[in-house]
Amino acid sequence: MPCPVLCGRSACWAGEGEGGPGALPQPWGPPSPVRPHPSLGHPIPSNGSLWSLPRSYIYQKRWVKLDADYLRYFDSEKDAYSKRFIPVSSISRVTSIGDQKFEVITNNRNFVFRAESDADRNEWIRTLQQIAEERKSKALERTLMSPTTSGAADPADKSGFLELRGFKHKLFVAVAGDKVFLYKNAEDYRLGIGITYIEMNVGNVKEVDRRGFDLTTPYRIFSFSADSDQEKEEWVEAMQQSIAEALSNSEVAERIWVVESNRFCADCGSPKPDWASINLCVVICKRCAGEHRGLGPGITKVRSLKMDRKVWTEELIEALCAAVTTSDLAETQALLFCGAAVTCATGDPQCPTPLALAEKSGQRLQMEFLLHNKNSETPRLEVGTSEEKPYSVPLPSVTHNGFLYKTPSMAKPVGERKGQEEFSRRWCTLQDGVLSYYENDRNAVPNGEIKVEEIVCLVNNPPNAHGIESTFEIYIESERLYLFGLESPDSAREWLKSIAKSFVHPRAEELLALDFERIGRLHYKGGLNLERAKEGWFALAGSTLHVCFEDSERQEPLQLRKLQELSIQGDNEVLVLVERRRTLYIQGERKLDFLGWVHAIQKAAGSAGDTLSEQQLTESDVPLLVDRCIDYITQCGLTSEGIYRKSGQNSKTTSLLEMLRRDARSVRLKEGEHQVDDVANTLKRFFRDLGDGLFTRQWGQDWLRATALEDEEAKISEYRRLLGTLPTVNRATLKALINHLFRVQRFSGENQMNTHNLAIVFGPTLFQTDGKDYKAGRVVEDLISHYVKIFNVNDQEMKKQQDEIMAIMKMREAASSGTQQAGDFICTVYLEEKKTEAEQHVKIPATMTAEELTFEILDRRKIVMKEKDYWSCFEVNEREEAERPLHYSEKVLPILHCLGTESYLVVKKQMSMENMLIYLASRVGDCKHGMMKFREERNLLGLGLSTGFHDRYFILNHTCLRLYKEVRSHKPEKEWPVRNLKVYLGMKKKLRPPTCWGFTVFYENEKHEKQQWYLCCDTQADLREWFATFLHVQVGSGHGTEHAVFQELGCGGMLG
Prior knowledge:
The chain is of the alpha+beta class. The protein is 29% helix and 24% strand. Strands 19, 20, 21, 22, 23, 24, 25, 26, 27, 28, 29, 30, 31 and 32 form a 14-stranded antiparallel sheet that branches.
């Protein structure tokens, strides 16, 4: 029997035989958190280092983790997936055997451990013995590895052999509950000792080929292969069900399991049943739920405790928890089973049914029980009051009345136009929280009622959507839709205002001031907490979705046309909206109103017309269509001869323009699939067909008249004035286009399109003329020639543009010499650290920024950012042993062409960001000064390195960094402009820095002369403060608050 050696600051342990061919090759992953055992008053000493003795009889150091369910060991503490795990439930006893050793005896094998001290050993023995005793006393609560052992959490939903890439032999795989377990063989599965398990709340399954499929997690991709097509489909279905269970809400189940008798299936006794018969008031396991379903809904109505969240009202939860002790319900149940009808007549005209009697008596549990035993589904909230709802507070009392046209209520969306003959005129009153409709204004008994607390959505339809001029829709919780109408738009607005005020939560009253098309409540996940769905209030007005989040006092607008992504996940159950710094998941708890929200949001997020402001936009207010075309031509067509002068194929141009106008967000222009001339022609046609034009009809003639000014400075001044008169989107679009044409003419030697030639093409296009007026071309030529002055382009922007142009020229030179294929800008970027399994090969367009690259990498690995996560793209210099986070707007391509062979890009978290934010928020003034240790590297005349580090006094401000010999010095020894500095965290160890908190600084002047030097701080806090100030003075101008600046340094956190 092997004897693992236990070591480390906390007790650490391993099991026998974890090495060999069955061990899982490890990628990087986050360490699991320490979890206290539920029955103990203190945390388990749950991790540490271990020397284990595998079958090779050579000790190997392992990192070991113990939680309430499993003992697992890993190659290192950074690994996400173990090499072996042992269920804690299999531990029978723990004994001391001397010399800091102790023996853990399980049902199958014995394990010997050695701690660093007797005290550690005794602590481990005490803790493990307590766990073993707890398990013995509650044997039925033990988690079992399989139906035949005491190790697994659930019986396997699917098990069998699969091939896994990286293993010579097939592995035995079991899907159980919300986890997938991997075993070396079927014997290990029977014993309960496995390789690792995968928590499916972070998993995603995708079919790869005929027999293969991938299980993707943020830490590793598991590539499986089954024996047949049918087997593969069964495995994929089982894993998808496991993901659904992992993502389900266990709040209801946990509350029901509080009662001890509810912790076991009423039929077979299995632990932790997660299904229930809602009319029999019993909890059952998944397998017994299948048997119940076979009996039919007339006998037993089966619901999931985890997934059917909307079924479980507060009353029903209380009923289930009290089922074994409440005699009244048992008596009611017995009467029903004896044949009593739920809808039988009582003979009392005031309370004609047992349900009405229960309501009058205030017996809420009885009412819930009777409702769920009706033959047909009944809206469970009809008998409720606003006080029962967790979201509800006293709503304002609103009164309104008048005649409305109404159609019969519907259970499906309004699919076609309703004619006037389909509406009936009804007298309607809104009073005391009830919207009632009567046959006429003389009737005392209403035909029907809608309680405002049941309203979940109110929709204002476009004029003449139906046979009545103004119509609106009301959606209620029981999946019913009511359509009302009026011939008077003013009267319809009054009704909308009154109904909205009556049901919208007071904290969302800001939304009532909007000219909304749709308003209501939905469940969502977002911000820093994705564990629990929250309820928010939403209002759609134009292309803006206004949201009042549960934990926010003010409404927040989402510009739908600026979304980076809009998609539907699951079975049309989750709408995903991705902004630049936030992802919002809107959940479809009710199908009817959710479908309406999805269609309305999709429509609002698309292009709505032919003017610039109605297009899908980038963050910088440039139409996405324009941005897509410019980006593609910059990447693939700058050197194309006759670019913009040659015409593409008319049919392809028309088709491409239609696709981009319909939804530019979903279109990806790819080299080989799209021709440069087709894309160029698409861009020109877009501007020519643009409603109101780029320069607008109001100001277009003023632009043309400005060409008559003879004085160049006066002309430039007039152009700048006219630029300020343009709408925001027109101004941003014009700058983006002229910036692009400025680049194009820089390659005129190859593409034959100088400034004059471009002006001839774009003048008539942008001014939408016939080409006979030379003034249009003159305006465009002036804008390109005086681009820097007219658009106020600073030196930093020009330098970035120069770098991009140089990078493109280098790439084209490499392509023409045959060393690289034209347009093939592909680089390797790493996630977290440089190793093979962390590689991502990314195609880099000329306009891709560091932020876009960061999003691309995180999206590929399906990484969800959590609280206080600040992800950035870093440039790492291995030779200098230093790294720097790229500013979010830095273009990646120029950086790639400046990287040496010992440098690379990596996307990872900014671990010090939170502390830097706190410092910037609390500091006074924009300067930073203090003592640092300084060392300069001299490369001139072969002088080599200067000797040692010396104390120097530094002052850093927005313009320069000054070095003084000492604090009292008046004249600086050296001075460097901040814009010419590149600051890297870290420095070479061979320099023997006096502290470990240093950074490396590179300086390059206008003559391209380079210097390099090193700075050391006394503390880590000093290093953070200096580095934060460097970044702020270099990129912080014009960004407002320091917090906003640092949110933009990298990808940033997933902010709510």
